Every structure is written in C-alpha cells, then in structure tokens.
Amino acid sequence: MHRAAKVVIERIRALGKISDEQGKLTRTFCSPAMRKANNLVASWMKEAAMEVREDAIGNVIGRYVAGLAGRAEDEAKVLLLGSHLDTVRDAGKFDGPLGVLVAIACVEALHKSGTRLPFAIDVAGFADEEGVRYQSAYLGSRALAGTFDSKDLKRVDANGITMAEAIRSFGGKPDALSATKTDRKRLLGYVEVHIEQGPVLEKNNLSVGVVSAIAGQSRYECNFTGRAGHAGTVPMSMRSDALCAAAEFVLAAEHYAKRSSGLVATVGRMEVLPGASNVVPGEVTLTLDVRHAEDSVRERACLRLQKLASEIAKRRKAQVRIEKRHEAKSVMCDRRFSRMLDKIVKQHQGKSIFLPSGAGHDAAAMAAITPVAMLFVRCKGGISHHPDESASAKDVRMAIEVMNDFLTELGNAQAQQRPNANRSK
Ligand SMILES: [Zn+2]
Description:
Distance between the termini: 28 Å
Bound molecules: zinc ion
Radius of gyration: 24 Å
Oligomer: single chain
Order of helices and strands: HHEEEHEHHEHEEEHEEEEHEEHEHEH
Strand content: 15-25%
C-alpha cells in the first residue's frame, strides 16, 4: 500500500476512536471529543511543518507557508484545503476527516521534497458542519467565510448550554468571531476532498470524480387535514382520509422526481393523527425535501409538487397547508479548478466524470467568498452517515495523487502569472 494513503487510513481510524459516546462515533461541536480530535490533528499538521492555530470558533487551521523569493509572507495568496472534524450521531469515520487528512498528506509530501509553492496552503479542520449539537450547519466554515450569524450564539443545546458558553469553554472567543473571518483578497480558493456519500462512482467503477455543483435544496412541512372517523362505521365512499391523501402525494412526488434528470424528492418523516388502528386518520404532517443542482429546476419542481398536493387534497375533500422550512441555493464549482482536477483525474484513472453533490458541504459556505472545487472519493456501497462508511486505501491513494498534482499545477500556473514569485525548491 502507498505509504501516504496508509497513514491517512491509520489517522482516520485513530480519529474514529475519539467519540463523545461510548460504543459509537459521535463528535459534536465544541465537545470534549472535538478537543481531543483538534489536538491530534494539530500534532499531525505540525509534523508536516505547518504553523497551527485554533480560531475563535474552534476551527483548527494549519499553514504551510509560501516560498516567495525575497517577499513578505503576508503578501502571499492562500489556497484553503480541508473539511470538517465533527460527525453525525453514530457516524462513519470518513465523512469529514478524509478531506482534512488528505490535505495534510499533500502538505507532508511538499515538505518532504522541500517544495514551497508560490502561495501558502491553509488546511482547515472545521469545527462544525453537521450541525448535530445546535441544529445549525456550517458553523466553522461560516465563521471563516464571515457569514456566521451572531444570533446563533444564543441557541441552546439539549442540555441548555448556549452556543456562546460552549465556544468559550472550548477555548474559543464567541465575542471575537468576526475576527476569525479570513482575508478574502488573499484567498485563491477552497478545495475539499470528501467521500461521495452516494453510489455513482462505485457504479462507474471509478476511484474519484469531480464535483460539478452542490445541489440547492428546499424543505417543506406539509399538513393534510381530512376527517377522523370510526374505522368500522364510516363507509369508504364517505371518508376524507388524510393518510390516503398524504400517501398519494408521496407517490406523486416520487413519480415526478423520477421523470426529471437529477431531481430528488424525499418524504422522510410522517406523523399520523390520531394514530389509532381503529380510527380513520384525520391529520398527517409530512416533510418534503427537494434537491437539484440547478435552482430553476428545483424551484419549478417545488411549485409543481405544491400544486399536486392541492389537487390531491381537493379530490379527496381534504385540506393541505404547505410551509417552507429551509432553502439553500445551489453552488456551482469553479470552472478553472474543476477543469484542472478533471484533466488530472483523467491522467490517473483514464476516465473522469463530473457529478453533482446532493449533500451540503463546507465548500457551499466557503463559496460565499471564494471559488470552490471538490473531489469526491468512492465510498463502499454508497453508504454514509453510518458506521459501515468506508473508502479503500486504493481510492484514498488516488485522491492524494490527484491533489498532489493539482497543487503542483496550480503552483506552476501561479508562478507564471507572477514571475517574481519563484517556485523555490
Ligand atoms: Zn461531510
């Protein structure tokens, strides 16, 4: 096995043992497990000759300084790499840490060969992406991007601890979050390696793929109200069964999404009232999640699905109320970076595909201030957010090699742009 890939896998296993819950992997924002994880990742960054700091929200960031002949380091552009170190509850080991550890492996390779690039590399281990503790995603990357909403500091976790208190006890500075904001003028971009969390690369028999866009998403809560009644005495022809209306809508949403390329629509939760075996359901509340890489397609789908819900309710003499709970626009990945990745991936595995990301990532938050790109790594069975989540050493090796070449190529391109900033070796 390639040594660097072996080290990455060993480190992923080591991080996988650092958990807030016994017997399963759960690492949430500003928890004792995150403290241990940050310290361990910081020690690996230092081994790779990086200067390490922890910012006001608890992101651990290592810097590999640029090689600028005779120029001040603080003039150098910065390429940001990384991913998140927090996890969902009962998580897999690869979601997040893979991107941080591949980035450290690439810096380690540069350090070992004595190479400095005409830009600095920052590797970020973000403090929160999954949002388990405060139901608010991308806390780490939003703080870095300067889009953190300070109202969030008042949120409380399940134990009544405010976010501000949690950050403070972690060693962060909730009152100085605005200072964490990175200098966007110096940023070249953000590139994230992440497991695919889906089955597309495996189906195509490919180790890695280039992300075209991060899908936008809309989440709704739909409430169907019919008329509850006795399951034995109300004839079928005289019912307004809220669950039958909801069930028809679930299948209609599935049918509609199947006919539109790339569109996904999911009803993930349903609550039936009164919820008794001998009562006709009077009320059903369900969630609808709609995603597509193109906002116009998603928006059209949402309008159509709302119309379908109304038609179904009307036909069944029921009512439907639909409320939007969340909306995020899609993020297009940077064309220049993505083309570079695509070319390098082709050189390494003979074939490269672009694929959209249906899941959100730190790259979506960083896109607010800088060009972003992502490289997906095949994951076994497409399984993620589950202890069985896994990527092979061969595929991790491929990701490291692609990213090594990407850094070299970007270094060459930058050196050409600024002839004074020699690539030193
Ligand atoms: Zn992730």
